[in-house]
UniProtKB/TrEMBL annotation:
PANTHER family according to UniProt: DIPHTHAMIDE BIOSYNTHESIS PROTEIN 3, DPH3 HOMOLOG-RELATED
InterPro entries linked: DPH3/4-like (IPR044248), DPH_MB_dom (IPR007872), DPH_MB_sf (IPR036671)
Coiled-coil intervals: none
Assigned protein family: Belongs to the DPH3 family.
Region (Disordered): 63-87
Record flagged with keyword Metal-binding: yes
UniProt pathway annotation: Protein modification; peptidyl-diphthamide biosynthesis
Catalysed reactions, as listed in the record: 2 [3Fe-4S](0)-[protein] + 2 Fe(2+)-[Dph3] + NADH = 2 [4Fe-4S](1+)-[protein] + 2 [Dph3] + NAD(+) + H(+); [3Fe-4S](1+)-[protein] + Fe(2+)-[Dph3] = [3Fe-4S](0)-[protein] + Fe(3+)-[Dph3]
Lineage top rank: taxon: Eukaryota
Keyword annotations of the record: Iron, Metal-binding
Naturally occurring in which organism (per UniProt): Sphagnum jensenii
The protein's name in its UniProt record: Diphthamide biosynthesis protein 3
Stored Pfam families: Zn_ribbon_CSL (PF05207)
Length: 87
């Protein structure tokens, strides 16, 4: 049985570990990597004890959707000079 159910928003992203983490009562951290979330896994484990938590998240948020197309800009490209002729 899971020690607790924790929303992904309540976890912290740890850049060094490349994992979402949450404090464990033993003093270490529960952790789960993005790859596991993308595969639908929802268990974050503590590497120092036998406890684990269930991570509550939206699977679609972690499945690779293509990025949205770039928006078309209006006006001249950045860094160019526009000449205006006055009659």
């Amino acid at each position: 049985m899971s020690y607790d159910d924790v929303e992904i928003e309540d976890m912290e992203w740890n850049e060094e570990m490349q994992a979402f983490t949450y404090p464990c009562p033993c003093g270490d951290l529960f952790q789960i990597i993005k790859k596991n979330l993308k595969m639908g896994q929802e268990i974050a484990r503590c590497s120092s004890c036998s406890l684990y938590i269930t991570v509550i998240y939206n699977l679609e948020d972690f499945q690779g959707r293509p990025p949205p197309p770039p928006q078309k800009k209006t006006g001249p490209p950045k860094g160019t000079t526009t000449l205006i002729t006055v009659a």
